Amino acid sequence: MDWLGGQGMIQWTSRIYVSDNLKKKKDKIIDSINNRRITSDIYCIAFASQSSNLFDIINANELLFPHYQKTNVEIVGLAKGKDEAIKLVQDMLMEVYDQTGEFDVRGYFSLRT
Asked: Of 19, 30, 96, 113, which cross-links 79 as Cys (Cβ 3.0–4.6 Å)?
């Protein structure tokens, strides 16, 4: 799924990690983000914008800012609240490490799609 806005693009990985509180609302939330609607306390986990980091945790409403209309963002997870987002990132990192012995998140996710 893609959202084109300006020259930037929001992309969704084929398998999105979702915190337990959002599992039933996942499709509705993705639709809201794609259609640029304001969400309440939803956080997106995306591949890091800085090469020295692994993931970015972004409030979904920040994706409405002009900066993101010029930036490519690849979302790999959704969570309700920042605490759940941090927990989800921890779980994702442990999965990557358990499966590969490394923290190459981009490599791991590219193999899974």
From this structure: 19
Give the domain ranges of the chain.
2-112
| pLDDT on residue 7 | 53
For 67, the enclosing helix (H) or strand (E) is none
Rounded CA separation 24/96 (Å): 25
11 forms beta bridges with 2, 74
* DSSP conformation letters of 1-52: -EEEETTEEEEEEEEEEE-GGGGGGHHHHHHHHHTT---SSEEEEEE-SSTT
| pTM tops 0.85, yes or no | yes
Q: Which contacts qualify for 103-106: CB closer than 8 Å, 24 or more apart? A: 103/54, 105/47, 105/54, 105/55, 106/47
pLDDT digits (tens, 9 = 90+) for 90-110: 999 999 999 999 999 988 887
